[in-house]
């Protein structure tokens, strides 16, 4: 279960890094389009060239919207994955087992203290959660 969770975490991390890279590239493309349109307007480019530049810019914005939707979807998947792990039966069972073992450790330490021994690591308090 933890291997699966770690694998999913790695995928989400990879997707977020890829998204970051794509965002930077899209911003560069946006700047290039703006510069291209300015140069075309200054040089008096024909209407067909300006139309092609406008279409490319429209495709850029569509791509940016798709990237934003994918980013939101990735973030939602990450939140769901974190929720699934905490809600899983195995995780709840593991928490119960750890809680029981911590209780046993506390009882054994108390028993050792009653017998006059200082349990090793007694300065560390076991967490009840």
Describe the protein in words.
There is one protein chain. With 129 residues, the protein is an all-alpha fold. It has 2 domains: 2-87; 89-129. Helix content is 84%, strand content 0%. The chain contains 3 helices and no strands. It has helices at 2-43, 47-87, 89-114. The longest helix is centred in the N-terminal third of the chain and has 42 residues, at 2-43. The radius of gyration is 29 Å and the shape is rod-shaped.
Chain-wise SSE layout:
Blueprint: H1 2-43, H2 47-87, H3 89-114
Short description:
This protein is mainly α and 129 residues long. It has 3 helices and no strands. Helix 1 (2-43) runs antiparallel to helix 2.
Structural classification: mainly alpha
Percent range for helical residues? over 70%
**How does the major sheet shape up?**
none
Q: How many domains, as an integer? A: 2
Task: Report the sheet-strand fraction.
Answer: under 5%
Shape: rod-shaped
Distance between the termini: 21 Å
Count of individual helical segments: 3
The count of DSSP E runs of length 2 or more, i.e. the number of strands, is: 0
Task: Return Rg in Å.
Answer: 29 Å
The H/E string reads HHH
Unreliable stretches, pLDDT < 50, 5 or more residues?
none
Give the overall average pLDDT.
78
List its traits.
129 residues; mainly alpha; 3 helices; rod-shaped
């Amino acid at each position: 279960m933890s291997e699966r969770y770690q694998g999913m975490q790695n995928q989400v991390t990879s997707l977020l890094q890829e998204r970051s890279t794509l965002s930077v590239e899209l911003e560069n493309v946006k700047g290039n389009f703006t510069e291209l349109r300015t140069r075309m307007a200054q040089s008096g480019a024909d209407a067909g060239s300006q139309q092609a530049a406008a279409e490319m810019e429209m495709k850029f914005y569509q791509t940016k919207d798709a990237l934003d939707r994918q980013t939101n979807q990735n973030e939602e998947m990450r939140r769901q994955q974190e929720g699934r792990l905490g809600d899983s039966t195995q995780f709840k069972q593991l928490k119960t087992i750890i809680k029981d073992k911590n209780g046993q450790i506390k009882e054994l330490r108390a028993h050792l203290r009653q017998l006059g021994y200082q349990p090793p690591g007694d300065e560390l308090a076991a967490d009840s959660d």
